[in-house]
Amino acid sequence: MSSAHITFDTTGDKIARRVRKMRPSAVRNLFAAATRDDVISLSGGMPAVSLLPEEDVRRAVLAAVESPQARAVSLQYGPTDGLAGLRAVLADMMRDLGIRVKADQILVTSGAQQALTLIAEAFIDPGDIIITEGPTYLGALQAFSAFEPDIRAIPFDEDGMRMDLLEAELERIGKGNPRLKFCYTIPNFQNPGGVTMNAERRRRLLELADEYGFMVVEDDPYGRLRYDGGHQVPLKAMDDSVIYLGTISKMLGPGLRTGWIAAPESVLARVNLVKQGADLCGSAFDQLVVQHYFADIPWQRTLQKFIALYKERRDTMLAALDEFFPPEASWTHPAGGMFLWITLPDYMDTDSMLAEALEAGVTYVPGNSFFPDGVTGKNSMRVNFSFETPESITEAIRRLAGVIEERLELYRVFINAGALPGYGKEAVMAENERENWDEVIVASEQNEEAVMQSHDGDAAQIEIAEDKVAEAEEEAAE
To answer: Where is the Aminotransferase class I/classII large domain (predicted)?
Structure first.
């Protein structure tokens, strides 16, 4: 007789409402599949830790344990806000970026992911409005969603979050709205988009924050990983009220769970209270290893190796996309970081296509994972170029292109048969007619403006302007 038995979950009605609404991380779910020998993973955001010099790592670890004094620190409870020595080192490192903070304006966290959770717990009540880029980092969506906010996602282009769309959203929210808490942004080599916010938009974001009374949370895990162009001044360097999040995971390794928050003392006081209830304190061992690595070892040399390697891998991916991907696809061209964003025709569904990609031996993260509604972005995907070798990246893109092409072939049949509403020759003609009509409207509006301006001039100019309006209206009628 079989000894197997069925276990029922009796906790279903005990689970908190906010947890029922939480979505699992698509990256975490893909982790097991990505470790298969026959699968090339473009889904994770893992750094190439194999580049770290063994002797440098050994020195930093030994410094944390080799003396009784060191062990008394590294193996003991520590202060909630982090070891004072590490906070001083982090303050020095931030000065390289143009950010002037003191050690007591920094709170060390167990990775930047914990920083997001602490900020969410300290500031978000159910129904509060949070602004993010759309798409945005899925770990931030997880951290925020646990506290049931109303997340408003603002689209970006190649220059970062679009300020015109942000302004329109803020007008709908209204000035002085107590529900509006903060704007979360990754201005450098955004995850998942790979885009960087330009200087003009950074200034405008800070102006809007002051005008509408919301905080700005600047997440900067990739800022030092620049491959092209010049340094962009951090938001925190432009305005001390910005809440800045940093991490050592991309400069050393994510296994040493060490991040930090740099913020005004009033903010850190609230976050400190929340952290006491979360974990009392972070790992003093991790913190002391990190302190010695960045204080005693020439870490900038290794960072330059990371930059050279990732640049090569990014260039390889971009070249492979140009070679293998269909003309219907488009993608971002990141100047740094670890990711780029691929957009397919809006009738494609990268969520359902993932099973076919796994069968072909490649993974990515479907685009809908990076939007708060879990639906938007289904025709997009995030791919990572930092971890796999150039040869594997080329092969992965070739495999992925094959999967996409198979789906597109089917859709092209539907389109040619007129079975896909909104596409085909008639749809293209209608779109062209709409664009022509838009041009006529714009021309007419411009000419009407000329009439209004000319009314202050002589009658001859008025007559000329009115003739232009009449011509535009005749063209529109045709």
So the answer is: 57-400
